[in-house]
Amino acid sequence: MLVRKPSADSTNRKWRHELDHDAESVFWVLLYWAVAAQPAKLEKEKIVAATWAILTGSVDYCTLFLQSLGRNKELTHSVYQPLVPLLSDLADILIVDRHWLDDYETRNDPEYVPEAFQRLILQFILDNRDEAYMTIPVVDKSRNVKAITRHLGLPSTLSSRWHSEASRKRPSPQPSRELRKRPRVDAKAVRTVGH
């Protein structure tokens, strides 16, 4: 469901912290865990740099991230791929902020998001409780982020091209260290003023 235009009811509505905001916080903690979790005794897989940048980036990037969550094949360690549909379903609930909805809409109920989250998570647990990935222990340290590589012959950004060109220029001449020092004055040569 997309909000094409804000509800007339939202014009004078004041923001306040409500239960659905706590549910959203639970979602972000769950998502962070799913992205960062490294199962013990299994091959180490790194987090895609773009995923990490978006996840830790601005609110605008996070909103786009929520919309494309289900299509991200490398979001989690491969063992935890079955979690992605659940995360995607939870994200779909969060995409529309109820602040902008009409008062009469079901999704505008303050208990809608927490109730929907509870039902989806409980159903997921019941459906998957016997799956091996549900009980795999994880290591204490998060997965590492993949290093970003670029082709040496093709600078990837304007700033890298600038740095590349700047590195080819000769350095500006610098005065020798001796010329930069202030000359030392001999104490015997200094005349006392006023005597």
Helix/strand class? mainly alpha
Our measurement of the CA-to-CA distance between the termini, rounded to an integer number of angstroms, reads 93 Å
Total helices: the number is 7
The major β-sheet equals:
none
Structural Rg: 29 Å
**Shape by Cα distribution:** globular
Write up this protein.
With 195 residues, this protein is an all-alpha fold. The protein has a domain at 8-134. Helix content is 39%, strand content 0%. The chain has helices spanning 19-36, 49-55, 59-67, 84-94, 112-128, 158-168, 177-180. Helix 1 packs antiparallel against helix 4 and helix 4 (84-94) packs antiparallel against helix 5 (112-128). The relative contact order is 0.15. The model has no long low-confidence stretch (mean pLDDT 77).
Throw out a few tags for this protein.
195 residues, globular, 0% strand, mainly alpha
Q: Any chance you could write out the topology, listing elements then pairs?
A:
Elements: H1 19-36, H2 49-55, H3 59-67, H4 84-94, H5 112-128, H6 158-168, H7 177-180
Quickly describe the structure.
By secondary structure, this protein is mostly helical.
